[in-house]
Automatic annotation (TrEMBL):
Organism taxonomic ancestry: Bacteria, Pseudomonadati, Bacteroidota, Flavobacteriia, Flavobacteriales
Gene3D superfamilies for this protein: HAD superfamily/HAD-like, Putative phosphatase, domain 2
Record's keyword annotation contains Hydrolase: yes
One family name in Pfam for this protein: HAD_2
NCBIfam families named in the record: HAD-SF-IA-v1
Gene Ontology MF term list: phosphoglycolate phosphatase activity
UniProt KW keywords: Hydrolase
Broadest EC class assigned to this enzyme: hydrolase
Keyword match Hydrolase: yes
Catalytic reaction equation(s): 2-phosphoglycolate + H2O = glycolate + phosphate
Domain of life: Bacteria
Family affiliation: Belongs to the HAD-like hydrolase superfamily. CbbY/CbbZ/Gph/YieH family.
EC numbers on record: 3.1.3.18
Name of protein: phosphoglycolate phosphatase
Amino acid sequence: MKYKNIIFDLDGTLWDSRNTIIDNWNRILLRAELISKPLEIDDLNPYMGLLAEDILRDIVPGISSEKLEAILMEIKQHENKTIREKGGLLYPYVAESLAYLKKGHDLYIVSNCQDGYIEAFLDYFGFEDIFKDFESYGRTKQNKASNIKSVIDRNKLNETETVYVGDTQTDFESSKSNGLDFIFCAYGFGELETEKPNYIIQDFKDLIPIL
């Protein structure tokens, strides 16, 4: 077995939560008069996997630091509650593939989401026993590369036996900075620049023959 440990990104890799979260963003931003018209689902595509504060700064140029912090707090509080209640769209074959992979691998999640978001995802789908550990930007305020390293260090993972699975350039760079192989999910939200991942999958179940 080449890879004993598999670390996953979340948005664009395991699921698509845009339909669930966009109503929350629209309600809060429209009420605060920070946008003039509701955001559409596809408006979120370039932002999936990015930090919430960076998304808000781009959507609302010139927003003050005080206003940004207040709006972010409201968005995050409501978003985790909504995710736990309504979930999101799990990509095809994710549930079956994770259950299969769990039999012979240790599974982890590292995401740039807010604190509580991964927990809400796990709770909604009943995946608490699937993943051995997870980390998020919201909990550590560290970038993805640092959070991957934290998961590696505290679980004493061997880098040569560990692979990261994600859908963005940041995922690629973060995995490589930790000496990990990278599997790119072409069905996700991001694109790679000139670098070549170790593997490219068009469907989640394509992981099975690789792993």
